[in-house]
Description:
By secondary structure, the protein is α+β, with helices and mostly antiparallel strands. A hairpin with a 2-residue loop joins strand 12 (287-291) and strand 13.
Amino acid sequence: MTTRKGSISVKTNDIFPIIKKWLYSEHDIFIRELVSNACDAITKRSTLARSEGHETPAGKVSILLNKEAKTITISDNGLGMNESEVEKYIAQLAFSGAEEFVQKMKTMGNNTAKDEIIGKFGLGFYSAFMVAAKVEVESLSMQPGSKPTKWTCLGDTEYEFSESTKSEVGTTITLHIAEDSLDFLDKWKFNETLTRYCSFMPYPIGLMDLSNKEATEEIINETTPLWKKDPTTLKDEDYKEFYRKMFPMDPEPLFWLHLNVDHPFTLQGVLFFPKLNQSKPIQENGIQLYSKQVFVSDSVKNIVPDFLGLLKGAIDSVDIPLNVSRSSLQGDPNIKKISNYIIKKVSESLKKLFNSDRERYEKAWEDIGLFVKYGCMQDEKFDEVMRKFVLFKNTDGKLVTLEDYQASVPEAYKEKLKDKYVYFEKNLSDESLRKQLQAEGIQVLETDQYIDPHFMQHCEMKKVGEQTFKFASIDSEIENLLEATDTHADDIKIKDFFKQVLVGDNKEKEMTLDVDVKSLKNASSSAYFKVDEQMKRFQQMTKSMGNSAFSMPVKKTLVVNPRNTLIKNALKIWEKGEKKELAEKIVHHVQDLASLSSEGLTSEDKEKFVSRSQSLVQELSQFIV
Ligand SMILES: Nc1ncnc2c1ncn2[C@@H]1O[C@H](COP(=O)(O)OP(=O)(O)OP(=O)(O)O)[C@@H](O)[C@H]1O
């Protein structure tokens, strides 16, 4: 035989231009497709040989770049094909696969289909024609007595078989690069794509650039990635080194977990908890998805729940469908199982770390706290395990769990604080109140304005087992805890006096300000602001969601402490009637002091405060001179 012509039996003979047009930005996937075909062929050869009791040479893929001849050659020592197999698998199957692909693109509409299919498998061998004007396949099958064969095709429906001199079992594919794709012959560009897709493929992949006479072959991949190794043989340093290779710009990871499951789906992987850079937004797409060590995508949305989006690393599974639309991915039972498995593993590993090395857990809390709280709100199973291990800073600056908090409540207050957690809003709550509770040995939990209002609300709405949770802000709880039992006849007078000065007949003011009198054990604080707990939550939530449209006025109550000397004196001055103006100034001052020790003064109030302070100090100095 010299040559034999054949014709591809597809109905669409314009596949090539269509694919070229649609997949313009993704031309480089031909590298992944051809190299993974080569690896598959090597695996098939060794599996077949093993079943027949033979040895096979170590698998190897070699890639040659030849700028002068404008060719890229990919050779493997896999099982090879004889002529009829090339005809069946390459000429017919690969092309009909491509035709099916084009039909799908046509029916699904341009952009959706592109998003869903590109970057996934499916185009296979045909992708070679995205960059090549001519493709030659030379192959020698492993079957004894096979004759080598050569198939040549220009990307249209015609092809030709001719004789080949190939003497080693395996397949060599030569791409004659089209004029518009010559940049793939550049080693730097080629290598970049090759390492992106093929860094962990299971057989050594050698790359050689023939345009550099001194160049030698470089092996570009690690054939046994970390996730394929037995975790019991790995040391911390192995994980850290792997992380450095995958994410060279990142600081050392905090900790990691090794995933390995065979049933009911197969999945291996390593997930790292990165050290977050507070000044940079959280980087998503830190988890790479592989299928049989072939890079598929760095978007694992729908597979890994949102709250684990900050994790980094790799997961490798053949059970994640690669060639289906996103919506069907969501309904896929395997995906749900995989997602649940990952959630379970993450929560178990955090729990283990907490129990075995609490110091390390606490150190990592700054980086993981947000995602743990977010995870509890998003996923019930995660919540069941992790709520116990959520930490808050207490008054002493220690990180404590909710259980620790309960245990720290002094005996005398246990009944009053049953199931209740007193919180202090960082930069908003009144520091003097915290000090008063501290003097009684009562800790408070420091909360932020972003995630904590949501987390607290979540805990209150959702029990874990039989346990209920109730959070109370320090200003609303302090009177329950520290109110002195004795009441004084002056209490009503003080309330009226303050109300008259601060609210008077002003109806608008009345909507936002109320006055109450509570004598606290500690007489040093003159007054503090209290906001109704539900109101406060609503305000926190809308604020944390950045919703200023809802910034409705919040009614605050100025709680005045009648035991405080300044308050007592102010009442006396007021009642004497000669220096009513001074008494009024003191009242305003008390109010401003309460604002100052909680959320601060507005700039308008600040000005008034400063000028009033000056006049008060002047007045005071008259008494001394
Ligand atoms: N290097 C090779 N050695 C041996 N057989 C090959 C080689 N490349 C391709 N083939 C054969 O050609 C067939 C078609 O390849 P193609 O890449 O189009 O699709 P696939 O690999 O089966 O599927 P997909 O790429 O969509 O995962 C393969 O199934 C295989 O039988």
